[in-house]
């Protein structure tokens, strides 16, 4: 289920931002491993990249990211409901 959620959010983020698709990775982080609910960890950009850091600091881009995350969650729920 977490894979489906991750893929739904990833797809929405790529569609909304036009960012390069880095894919969905599986890891065994404790914060994700110990939950019984679907869980994902989002990395929305690289602050080490000056252009990306500047974009991440704008309200408009933050709103775009937030809306894309919500759209991905809604897509996930439409699959399981």
Question: Can you characterise this structure?
Answer:
The protein has one domain. The longest helix has 22 residues. The chain is mainly α.
Q: State the distance separating the first and last CA atoms.
A: 13 Å
Which geometry do the CA atoms define? globular
Strand content: under 5%
Quick check: average pLDDT? Answer: 94
Features:
mainly alpha; 4 helices; 60% helix
List the helices and strands and how they pair.
Elements: H1 2-17, H2 30-33, H3 50-56, H4 59-80
Quick synopsis:
The protein has helices at 2-17, 30-33, 50-56, 59-80.
């Amino acid at each position: 289920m977490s894979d489906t959620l991750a893929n739904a959010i990833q797809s929405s983020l790529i569609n909304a931002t036009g960012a390069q698709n880095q894919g969905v990775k599986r890891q065994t982080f404790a914060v994700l491993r110990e939950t019984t609910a679907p869980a994902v960890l989002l990395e929305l950009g690289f602050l080490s990249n000056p252009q990306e850091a500047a974009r991440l600091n704008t309200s408009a881009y933050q709103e775009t990211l937030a809306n894309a995350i919500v759209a991905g969650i809604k897509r996930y729920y439409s699959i399981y409901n």
